[in-house]
Amino acid sequence: MSATVSAIDACVTVVDNGDGTLTATAVYGDAGNEFVNTYTAAPVEASLVGKKNLQVPAGLTPADIAGKFTFTVTGEEGAPMPANASVTNDAKGKIDFGKITFTLDDLNKALGEKPEKREHTFTYTVTESGKVAGVTNDAKLSREVSFTVTDDGKGNLRVSRKSDGSAAFTFINTYSVTPKDSSVTDKIKATKYLTGRDMAEGEFSFELVEGEGKDAKVVATGTNNAEGKITMNAVKYDKPGKHTYTLREAKGNAGGITYSDAKFTIETTITDNGDGTLKAEHVLKDVDEAKFTNSYRPGSKDSSVTDLIKDESGRVVGFHAKGENGASYTLRGKAVCLALAAVFCVAADQAVKFLVVNTMSPRLRRLLLQLRLQHDRRGHPDGYRRRRLCGVREPRSARLPVQLQEQVRAGLHPPVCPRHHGQHQGRQHRQHRLR
Fold first, then answer.
1. Count of C-beta atoms within a 10 Å radius of residue 226
2. For residue 102, which of 24, 43, 18, 26 has the smallest C-alpha distance?
3. The pLDDT of residue 189 is above 50
């Protein structure tokens, strides 16, 4: 409490009225004739400081978010404002608007008529804005902060805030990553090789295994294309980490196939790019290429001739056969000639070649032992050279196509009869004509 008017100036004039009475007249100075006291209270300050919490799952490494989010404060009508109305967060998530100064005048304006309780609560709204890759903002975009100012009547103002820990307000954002699908064969080279015959697309299967023993788990499978390139299915990764895989062939039961026992180690490293995405690196250990080599050797289980077809004179004019896929074939006349040509000359028709080369029927073996094919120099429209059948002679590998030479060396070519070896030199042997 302080005196606004602490002294009064006055001039008093006393007049004798002549009748035994006096009259006194006072003249006051500019301050008047009232003593005036004024109530005052010292201003009080409060800090408006909040916090931004970024929740990060273990193993993830978000980029620095300092200065990436903006916070704006507004107050109710008549409320005093902090030093800064708009700020950004620092690296630790601190949001500091500065201090708000509350005065007795602010309180009096807010109270209007003077109530018995000299107290008022000032309310502020803080709003967040901004976006960072991989960060999900708080679902509630604003927070309310209240400061209550009280006059104790003794010249003291007090300010209090509803407790929220050390921060006036808190925003909670969450960092996460988008799962990534990645195949090991996107980064490494894996190839299937097959000797003995051509390879079909999707014929062989492969597995990517993580773990060992009873803990082993197949995480991806794949197949080959016709050229032997192996493509594995993608594995989904949802967090950083390291994985050690074994790439192996899944053994099938195709007849005549010897499957590869090769195994290759692949190390995969998944890292957080810091922007909500993951990076996958696949490394093939110790070798540059994962090679799986299978060999094909025909056997009686692959396909077989089930019956020969003969004419009235007993000559063989065709045969019935069953292929590896279970399909039945019937070859007659010229088809028999082409099929036999496939045995000796590797015909372009792989289905027919496969059927006959794999034949283990003794009856057809005897037929093949009695026949041979001899080329002349005249071409044939269907891609085969014209052939005639004559006595058996052991073929000379040097004159055979490369694929057939490999079959002869591997023992896949039907045997020839030594008894007829060289008998055709310089003279024509008996001929067999097939319809």
1. 11
2. 43
3. yes
Q: Which pLDDT tens digit goes with each residue over 285-342?
A: 999 999 999 998 765 444 455 566 677 776 656 666 555 445 555 655 544 544 554 4
Q: How far apart, in Å, are the Cα atoms of 192 and each of 105, 128, 325, 350?
A: 88, 57, 22, 20
The rounded distance, in Å, linking the Cα atoms of 372 and 379 is: 19
pLDDT tens profile 137-156: 999 999 999 999 999 888 88
Asked if 122 and 80 touch (Cβ cutoff 8 Å), the reply is yes
pTM over 0.85: no
Q: How far apart are CA 107 and CA 120, in angstroms?
A: 7
Residues 6+ apart with CB under 8 A from 98: 47, 48, 82, 83, 84
DSSP state of 189: E
Question: What angle (nearest 5°) sits at the alpha carbon of residue 346, between those of residues 341 and 352?
Answer: 70
Residue 36 has pLDDT above 80, yes or no: no
Look up residue 234 and give its amino acid. Answer: A
| Residue 238 backbone class (left: φ over 0; alpha: ψ -120 to 50; beta: rest) | alpha
What is the residue whose two structure tokens read 């949802």?
Answer: 238
End-to-end CA distance of the chain: 134
Whose structure tokens read 């273990």?
A: 58
Nearest residue to 339 via CA among 322, 318, 369: 318
- If one compares 320 and 221, the residue with the highest pLDDT of the two is 221
